[in-house]
Description:
The structure holds two protein chains of two kinds.
Chain A: H1 8-14, H2 52-64, H3 71-95, H4 110-121, H5 123-134, H6 144-165, H7 191-230, E1 237-239, E2 242-245, H8 246-257, H9 265-298, H10 310-336, H11 346-376, H12 380-391, H13 407-419, H14 427-430, H15 433-459, H16 475-498, H17 504-509
Antiparallel strand pairs in A: 1-2
Chain B: E1 15-22, H1 25-37, E2 43-46, H2 54-58, H3 65-91, H4 114-136, E3 160-165, H5 173-182, E4 186-192
Helix pairs in contact in B: 3-4
Amino acid sequence: MTSFQPDESMARRLAGIDAAGRPTPIPPGSGDGTLIDDIDVRPPLVLNNRSFKEVTDIICGYTENPPGRWWLPVFGMANALAAFGTLMILYLIITGVGVWGQTNQVDWAWDITNFVFWIGIGHAGTLISAILCLFKQKWRTAVNRAAEAMTIFAVICAATYPGIHVGRAWMAWMMFPIPNSNAIWPNFRSPLLWDLFAVSTYGTVSALFWYMGMVPDLATLRDRATLRLRSGQSTNTIAPFLPVRVDALRAYIYGFLSLGWRFSSRHWHRYEAAYLLLAGMSTPLVLSVHSIVSTDFATSQLPGWHTTIFPPYFVAGAIFGGFAMVLLLLIPCRELYPNMKDFVTLRHLENMAKILLLTGMMVGFAYAMEFFIAWYSGNPFEKDVFLYNRVMPPFFAAEDGRYAPYWWAYWAMIGCNVISPQVFWMKFARQSPVVIFIVATFVTIGMWFERFVIIVTSLHRAWLPGEWHMFHPTFVDIMTFAGTFGIFLTLFLLFLRVIPVFAISELKAVLPQADPHGHHDDHHDDHHGQGHDHHGKGH
Amino acid sequence: MTTVKQFVNEKGEPIYGIMAEFATPAAIYHAAEKLRDQGFTHWDVYAPFPIHGIDEAMGIRRTRLPLIVGSAACVGVVAGYLLQWYGSNIGYKLVTQGKPYGEFGGAGGWESFVPIMFELGVLFAAFATLIGMLALNGLPRHHHPLLSKERFLRVSDDRFVICVEAADPKFDHKATRTLLESLGGTHIDLVEDQ
């Protein structure tokens, strides 16, 4: 057993003893070296024997160096889409909700569908940063920053809708319990108000969690900019006519945001306690948010909504949809950014594919259980809603010719959410980024359809056939939804430019050379405090 | 009250402490154990990430942060109840489906207040966590003597630094320097208090 010194590999490389960037030896059949079936072997979390310095350089380089050529065109398109969506919102506000396809019967349609869709996507970030943290899943360190960013941007997109769907957007402040001259208070016994509190708390706490995790990394960017300034390496100015050095601006802004963080171990101690506390409180919070969103529906009397399974079913669906979005964002980033594959390895993707499979089965179970209860309850309205609002295609129409007009939406949901993730039972599928990307796309589509099915198909046929209406989206509906994708992508692309995409300090802490007991092997022990001679096997 | 010894460098400027660099987490871990055992109190280990077990090696006492956060959570829950109780019973009595307005005791109906009580409890606790952590750490702070040291700025990259402060009762110009050298520290340097 040799004692491994952290920067020995770097020193050897600089001295020319080892070739630069000597890759980790890859066992055959393990993909990039991380797909090892043997449970006694802990695969590396970061590939290519990266030193601390290389980790800093690579990740800070993403924000410090100019982005690839793809960035500006993609950003431009996302921006244009966001601007167009914003125009649609403006048009809605100055004209009225009549520009949407809502009818007297279907008074919640794409607006609430999109709200639930986005808020659901926003669940993966906190799941990764909080729940996986409590479960000591170290692989989360490579994906948590991006996933938390995605969470916040998704919540921003979601929060757009309740504000504009009230019709008179200038009265949206009345959703909040603010003393006003009408002496009116909101109804605190209504799930819609719970929802407001849940979503705004969730957005705020996610942002705090994200920011706190970022403080040390912002301090790293601050120190690098300061060092470049002091050593005179920094020559770039913001613009030819504006003789301020970019690094001076960086040192100032990152310095302001990093709050004077100086990497003290006494600070780290409280920081880790704070991190664990936030993880502990975010875990019930993330579960509460979509549970409360589901009570918007579940506490009503409408067949198709009045279901006790809704809270867990919504939470599982949210995690499912959120992980699909994380994968949709990270798989292209991995290809576009140099060296990112060292941090987001095939094993990360495989783990997330497994979570997709698991949560996909959970929503599948919930779909099945809704049917079982509709039948078992003996309630004719409930049965009718499921058979003739949702499921029955025209070629299986009843003898009187009745069929479910939204059958295509229902079956799109089943195909995307329940059937498509089943490919992940096969190893090659969950280890192939292309297959994962395709399935994640299906899941995102399917999860949108799930909310559409729940909201629109339940609403479009009320108790009396005279009230039955189909819902048809308008151009404004469609472009507002597309616009939120634009807002989401714009924010995410800006995030990639200015904020460290990975949690640098957390990644360094999971490198093998970070172990203070000097054992360079794959067996990390989480419990040094409980006995120093207690180590994994294989020494 | 004992008078604090004032240490100065050759130019007569007051000093903050002495810093030494260590190459690896293992080296700084063992150095920290020795400094702890020698009874130093005003000193710190600076590392790019929280080194596993460094709390015990330095003899750091458990933080009081959970108490602050727990109290804030309780305040949030109570505030959530009072807000809803006031809004529903005094501010604006709204009859919905003949249900009680919501209170503990009396006509009851407090159950529908629980979600918002929970959310506000979490909200208050989260703010208390971030603000409490920063306050206990003495942050935000505009400047710190160590941040003027160019070598110190590399801690955020890959260096490990111990700084013994001049405020420590056991601090001594020469003896502390020799001690840090004997523990394997390199690039030992005075940190001016500026």
